[in-house]
Every structure is written in C-alpha cells, then in structure tokens.
Description:
Layout: H1 20-85, H2 88-97
Amino acid sequence: MAQARTHFSKVAAPRAIxxxxxxxxxxxxxxxxxxxxxxxxxVSVFHVWSRFKLVDLNLExxxxxxxxxxxxxxQKRLTLEAASLxxxxxxxxxxxxxxxxxxxxxxxxxxxx
Length: 113
C-alpha cells in the first residue's frame, strides 16, 4: 500500500462557464442574499422588540390598575372615617367628657338684634 500511486489524469477539470459572467452573477446573487438576510434580521429584531414592549406595557397597565383599585378603596375608607368623625353625637360626647364642656343655659345666651 505504501507504494500505491495516485493518478489524476482521468479527473476532469471543471469547465469555465462564461468566466467573468459567472463570477459576477454569483457576486450579485451573494449581495442579494446578504441584503435579504439583513432585512430579515432587522424585521425579526423589531418583532421581538415590539413583543417585549407589549408585554412590558401590559405589566405596567396591570400595576396601574391595581394601584387605582387600592386608591379607590383608600378613598372610600377615608370618606367613611371623615363622616364618622363629623358625627354631632361624637363631637358632643368628646366636648362633655374630655373637655368638660356643657350646653349653655338660658341665662348664658345673649340675643343680638
């Protein structure tokens, strides 16, 4: 085996097909394919970015909706608390018990004309 010879005399050389025309056609095809790949890549990146942005905005909307519900509950609670604090019976009880006040007598009332 070590003495085996290899003869390439029967291998046919590729024929030149138009020479320069074939090469320029391959270059044009390569440029076209590269442009197509670049455009496809840009469109794909834009699509992924837009989907990411959509998910991000949906999360932001849901967070704002949650905050709005919490604010509405807080507003209702504070409105109820303000109404209970303005109750005249409560104010009178605090005035009598904690501040030692009493209703005025008829002699303490002065009518201004």
